[in-house]
Every structure is written in C-alpha cells, then in structure tokens.
C-alpha cells in the first residue's frame, strides 16, 4: 500500500483539505460581508416609522440567499400611510419578482419590481379612502450590492471607505426639484406658495389642490395622482472594503448636510453612530420634526469599519467655508466614486413614466395558471383583458399594444391619471 508521501508524489495537484477549507473561508469573507446596523429616533408628531429586517431570503429555506431590508417612512397628515406602507411594501416588491431567478438575475429584476411594489402599495392604500401620505426610502442590501428606491425627501447616503460621501436618493421637493415642478404642472397640478391675506405668498412651493410640498409620495389621495408613487431607483456595488449607509427622515436632513452627517459619526459603531447623527441634528436645529436615523455598515466578514479620528472642532468661519466647499464639490465627488473603484454604479432611473420604468417584455410568458399577469398588482389576466403599458390613445401611431408588460384595466386607469391623461381619483372634501 502506497504511503501518504507516495500518493502525494503521484498526485501533485492534490491540495490538503485544511488548505481548501481555508481558501473557501477567505473567498466567503470576500464574497459575503457582515451587515451591522443600528437606529435612533426622537418623535414629535409620531408619524415616522422604520423597518429593519435582516433575515429575508431570495430562496425560502436557503440561508446563503439571505438579504437585508432597511426603510424609513415619514408620514404626513396622520400616520396611516406610513404604517400601511411599512406593513405591505416589502411583500409587494418581492411579489413582483419572477420565481426561480439566480442571484444576478434577481438583482437585475429588483428595479422594476420596486416600481411595481411602490405603485401597488399606493393604489391599495388609496382604495381605503384615507387621506394621509408618506415618504418611503427603501434599501435592499444583498452582499455588496445596495439597491435604493425612494419617493419624497427622506434620504439615503453612502459613506464609502476612503471618506467619499454620495447620495443614493433624489429629494422630491417642489421647492428644489425643477424637473418635478414641470412634470406636476404638465400633469394638471398647480404649483405655488401659500397665499395669505393681502395676497402675500409664504412658505415653500406646494402642489394644489392639497398643499403638499412633495412631488412624489405614497397615499395623499386628496392631492391628485400627479403626485406619483413611482420611485427613483439607484443600484450600486460596493468594493470589498465596504461602506456605511445613513438612512434618515427629513428631520435629519433639514439640519445636516450629507457630509456633516457622515463626519459626525465616523469611527463609531452603527448603533452609536445613529444616536450621534440624531444628537447632532437636534443640537443644530432642535426637535422641530420627527427625527429618525438608521445606520448600516456593510463590512468584510469578521471586520469593522476602521476607526476614524473624531471630527476636529472648527471656528465658525472655517466651518462655513468648509460647508460651502463640501456642497459645491458633492456632485463632483459622487461622480468620482466609480472612477476610483470604490463604488460601481449598476442602475439609475428616476423617470415618473410607468412605461419607461416597466420596460419591454419582448416575449411575455404566461403565468403558471396559463394567464398573463398585471405588471403592477400581479392579478391574473386573460390575454383579451391585458392592456399593454405601452399602448397609447386610440389614434396613437406610436403605441405597441401587443408588447408587454401588461396592466389590468384598473392599473391602466391609474397610469393615465398619474400622467394627467384622466381626472385624478377620488377627491376628498
């Protein structure tokens, strides 16, 4: 019988089992990061809600398919919309993803599923006849890939390793967002400030009827459906060095710039970091609004973000100069992220047009029941019932009525209302 040395000599390619296991563990550390998180909040009106769920699975029962969801819902005109969205949005998004996809295909399907899930949640909530609304900033972390969908003015920022800070959301405030003002006006809304006695106008730009400052939200059925629930979506892949996400309601961002929020908590673990961001916001402006912050660290396995020295104290003049410089260079810095290999941008789209967001189905496959499915609400449709999301008016020459995805009649009506082609839904006195 050959000795161990002889067997190794005859098979020089054999690798000891311990070395294989060690290699696999190293590969696993690179492939699958650790996600550490914490949150902090101070309530004034009781309309901020949040979601932190780290045990979601792409394939039920398969622990290697685990992903995490973090979200903030900042309600207004009551908390009903925020509560409803917190309870239903995740299941609606996951319900819009085809079954049996591998991880890469699943990640590619996420942006479209997020649009469908947001619109379905809005449609269902509005059918209840309640008039409240909510922002939604919804973050999915799957290994190194981060996908963010947002409506309203809650925000998610990324503090990448190396100190670069970028924003993964777009603020849908009528005051600052010119494109959204133009879209709302073109869809039938009226944009203006609040008029007081004597004709003077005060406060931020609002959409009338209703007086909402935001151009996108979930709910708000008393405002008009040109206030759409179609989210801005951005998907990025972090380098294996990882990074920190700060997700917060406008109670934070009305007080702190993205850079200041990131700097205020560098070197702290996630839970303490979230508390520090809230503390800094309250120190700056006081508790004028519900203030909620979630901090998520996506870091190599068995590792943590390297500690940074605490921010140095500046005199007021230096602080003002620094803030101006930070603000001016924020966009340039964001664009440089990909170039230096810190972040790879995989997807970005912010259009409010449902046809653009749902894309084309070159070959629409019937569901398992043999029927087609509405791309938004996922109800089964007979082939004669579905209306292409690309179908135009009766006399339109640009419509592609035979090409999916398809909508049920109810969702098609909502699409037209959001685009100002039909009177908006139920009006509340």
From TrEMBL:
<dbReference type="GO" id="GO:0004722">
    <property type="term" value="F:protein serine/threonine phosphatase activity"/>
</dbReference>
<comment type="similarity">
    <text>Belongs to the PP2C family.</text>
</comment>
<keyword id="KW-0904">Protein phosphatase</keyword>
<dbReference type="InterPro" id="IPR001932">
    <property type="entry name" value="PPM-type_phosphatase-like_dom"/>
</dbReference>
<dbReference type="Pfam" id="PF00481">
    <property type="entry name" value="PP2C"/>
</dbReference>
<feature type="domain" description="PPM-type phosphatase">
    <location>
        <begin position="29"/>
        <end position="298"/>
    </location>
</feature>
<dbReference type="GO" id="GO:0046872">
    <property type="term" value="F:metal ion binding"/>
</dbReference>
<keyword id="KW-0460">Magnesium</keyword>
<dbReference type="InterPro" id="IPR015655">
    <property type="entry name" value="PP2C"/>
</dbReference>
<protein>
    <recommendedName>
        <fullName>protein-serine/threonine phosphatase</fullName>
        <ecNumber>3.1.3.16</ecNumber>
    </recommendedName>
</protein>
<keyword id="KW-0378">Hydrolase</keyword>
<keyword id="KW-0464">Manganese</keyword>
<dbReference type="InterPro" id="IPR036457">
    <property type="entry name" value="PPM-type-like_dom_sf"/>
</dbReference>
<keyword id="KW-0479">Metal-binding</keyword>
């Amino acid at each position: 019988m050959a000795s161990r040395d002889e067997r190794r000599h005859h098979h020089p390619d054999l690798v000891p089992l311990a070395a294989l296991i060690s290699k696999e563990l190293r590969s696993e550390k690179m492939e699958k990061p650790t996600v550490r998180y914490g949150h902090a909040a101070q309530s004034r009106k009781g309309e901020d809600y949040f979601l932190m769920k780290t045990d979601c699975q792409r394939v039920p029962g398969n622990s290697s398919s685990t992903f995490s969801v973090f979200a903030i819902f900042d309600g207004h005109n009551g908390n009903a919309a925020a509560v409803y969205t917190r309870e239903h949005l995740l299941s609606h998004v996951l319900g819009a993803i085809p079954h049996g996809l591998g991880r890469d295909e699943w990640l590619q399907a996420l942006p479209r599923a997020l649009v469908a899930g947001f619109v379905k949640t809005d449609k269902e909530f509005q059918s209840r006849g309640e008039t409240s609304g909510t922002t939604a900033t919804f973050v999915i972390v799957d290994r190194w890939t981060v996908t963010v969908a947002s409506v309203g003015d809650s925000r998610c920022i990324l503090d990448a390793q190396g100190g670069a800070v970028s924003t993964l959301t777009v603020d849908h405030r009528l005051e600052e967002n010119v494109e959204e003002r133009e879209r709302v006006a073109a869809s039938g809304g009226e944009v203006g400030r609040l008029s007081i006695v004597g004709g003077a106008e005060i406060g931020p730009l609002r959409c009338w009827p209703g007086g909402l400052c935001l151009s996108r939200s979930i709910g708000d059925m008393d405002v008009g459906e040109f206030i759409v629930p179609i989210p801005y979506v951005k998907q990025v892949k972090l380098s294996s060095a990882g990074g920190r996400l700060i997700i917060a309601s406008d109670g934070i961002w009305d007080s702190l710039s993205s850079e200041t929020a990131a700097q205020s908590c560098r070197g702290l673990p996630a839970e303490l970091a979230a508390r520090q961001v809230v503390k800094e916001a309250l120190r700056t402006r006081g508790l004028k609004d519900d203030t909620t912050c979630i901090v998520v660290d996506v870091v190599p396995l068995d590792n943590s973000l390297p500690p940074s020295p605490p921010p140095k104290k500046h005199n007021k003049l230096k602080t003002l100069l620094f803030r101006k410089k930070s603000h001016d260079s924020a966009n340039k810095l964001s664009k440089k992220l990909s170039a230096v290999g810190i972040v790879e941008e995989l997807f970005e789209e912010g259009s409010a047009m449902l046809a653009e967001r749902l894309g084309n189905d070159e070959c629409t496959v019937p569901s398992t029941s043999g029927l087609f499915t509405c791309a938004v609400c996922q109800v089964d449709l007979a082939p004669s019932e579905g209306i292409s999301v690309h179908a135009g008016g009766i006399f339109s020459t640009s419509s592609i009525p035979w090409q999916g995805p398809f909508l049920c009649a109810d969702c098609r009506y909502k699409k037209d209302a959001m685009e100002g082609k039909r009177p908006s839904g139920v009006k509340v006195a």
